[in-house]
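S., here's the first fold you wanted:
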Amino acid sequence: MVRERGRGDGTEDVEAALDGLYTTPPSGFVARREELAMAARTAGRAEDARRIHGARRPTLAAWAANLLLRSRPEESQRFLELGEALRRAHRDLDPAAVRELSDQRRRIVAALTRRTADLALDAGQRLSAAVLTEVTATLQAVLADPEAADRWATGRLDNALVPPSGFPAGAAPARAVRRGPPSPPRTDDLARRRRERLSRARAAADTAARERDERHAEHTAAEAVVRRAREHHGRARRQAEDAEEALRRARETLRSAAEEERQAEERSRAAGDALARAEREARRTARETERLEPAPGDGPE
C-alpha cells in the first residue's frame, strides 16, 4: 500500500522533506537537497541532515513514477492491489483470473503511463519516448514483483525498475500441457528479453549520467563557495589594509599630539619659572622700596 508519513516519533520533518525532495524535478534535486540538509544542520538536526544529504538524485523516469504515486494516491493504491491480485492468480495457476487481470493490466499500465506524462508536463518536464518506456517498465515491475511494489510505494525511487523474468509483461495464462517436441522460443519472448536488456542498459546509463550530473552540480556548488570565500577574503584584506592605514595615521596623530603636549609642558614650565622669578623680584623690589621710604614723622631739618 502507499506509505503514509507522520508516525508521531519525531521523524515527521525529515520524512516530509524526503517525500517532497523525491518529487522535485531532477534538474533541481541537488540544489534542493543541499538546501534542506543545510536547514536541518542549522536547526541542530545532524542525523536528519545526514539522511537528506545521502538522498540519491532520481532518474527522470524514477522521478516521474514518484510523481505519479504522490499525485494520484488512490489510483496508485488500486494499482498496487491489482498487482497483488495478479501475483496471487499466477501463484494459484488460475488461467481465467490471469487472463482477466492481464487484460486490466495492459489497459491500466497504458493509462497510467499517459497520466504520468501529463503530470510531468504539468510540472514543466516533457518525457521522451525512451523515458516513457522506462516508466512503463517500472509499472510492469510493480505489478510483477512485490519487492518492486514496496519500493515504488515509498515514493522515493531513484532509478527505473525492471520487470522480473518470472512474471513478464504480457504473460499468457496457463495452458494445458501439449504433447510432442518442445516449441521453439517465441518471438515475443525474445523481444521481451531484448527489452529487458535494453531497459537495464538504459538504467545503467541513467545511473552513470546521474552520478556525473551530481558530481558536476557538487563541483559547481563548491566553485561558488570558493568564489564567495575569495570575495570575502578580498573584502577582509581591503578592510584590514584600510584599518592598518587608519592605525598608521592615528599613531602619527598621537605622536604629533604627544610632541605638542611636551612642548606645551616645556613652555608652561618656562612660564612658571619666569613667573616665580618675577614674583621674587617684585617682592625684593618692594622690600627695597619699603626700606628706602622715610619713616612717618621724619622730615628734613
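And the second, which I think is the more interesting of the pair:
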Amino acid sequence: MSHLGIDIGGTKAALRLERDGAAAGAPAREVRFTWPEEGGAAADMDALAAAVERLGRPSGDPVTSVGVALPAAVDAEGRVRGWPGRPSWQGLDVRARLVVLLPGARVRIADDGDLAALAEARAAGCRDLVHFGVGTGIGGGVVMDGVMRPGTGRGSCEVGHVVVDHDGDARCDCGRRGCVQALASGRSTLRRAARVLGRPAGFDELREAWTKREDWAVRTVAPGVAALAAVAVSLSELTHPEVITIGGGFAAALPGYATQVADAADALRRPTGPAPEIRAALLGGLSSLDGALLLSRGLGIGTAPHPS
C-alpha cells in the first residue's frame, strides 16, 4: 500500500509517495512541477496526471490514500468555490478528478495552512500549536490536542483573515480592510515599502536592507510584525497553545523575523495570560507537503466524519 501527499500551490505543486508493508523501507518518491502558463484547469489536471505517472508506482502497489494540501476555498465534496491564485479552478471537483486518476484511493483535502500547522506540531512533538505561514499571503492553522481545528469537515482556520485594524486603510486581497494579511503578507509589505521609498522595491532589496537594519526596511516590516503579534496574543487567549511557529518563505528569508514577532507579543501579553513559546517553524517549505501525507494517513483530523 502507498500513501500520496500532494501540495498544490498557485504556481507549483509537489507530490510525495510513501509506502507501507514490505516496501516501507524504500525511500519516498517525490515529484515537483510548475503549472502550465496556458490551458486553464484542464491543462493543470493533465500536468498533475503526468506528475503522478512520473512517480513510477510499480504494479501491485496501489495508492490507497491521498492527502491534498490546497489553498483554495473548497466545499465538503471537494469542489473549488474560489481561488484567486488559479481562477480557472472555480467549480473544479478536485476530489472527483483524483478518484478517477487513482481508482480505489481515498482522497482527503484540507487547507494548506491547516496541514502546515499539523506537520509543525508533529515535528515539534507538540499537541497544541498555532502556526503562521507568512509568504505572498498569510496562511496558518491551529492544532489542539493533536487535531486540526475547526476540522476538515468545517472549513479552514483562516488566521490570515483575522481583523486587526478595522479603521485602517490597508485592503486585503479578500476585499476587506484590516485583515492581518493586508498588513503582514509579503505582497502587502512590498506595497508598503514602495510607499515608504516613493518607488517600487523588490524583495531582495528589502531583505538586504532589513539584514543591515536600515531605517526604511525596519519601518516597512514593523506594521506586519505588530499585526502578527496581535493575532498571536489573541489566539493564545482562545486556544492556549504550547508553541506558536512562524514560517513561510517571506518570514524565513528575513533574519530574526520570528524573534521580532515574539518580542512584540511579549509587550502585548497580559501578565497572567498565556505565554506560549513563539519561534521560527521547523519544516520550512516542506510543512504543507508533510501535512498532506499525514492527512493521507488519516492523522490529525479527529473523529468527525469526512467525505470519502
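Why I say that: The two ends are 18 Å apart (CA to CA). Residues 133 and 248 are 4 Å apart (CA to CA).

Talk tomorrow,
H.
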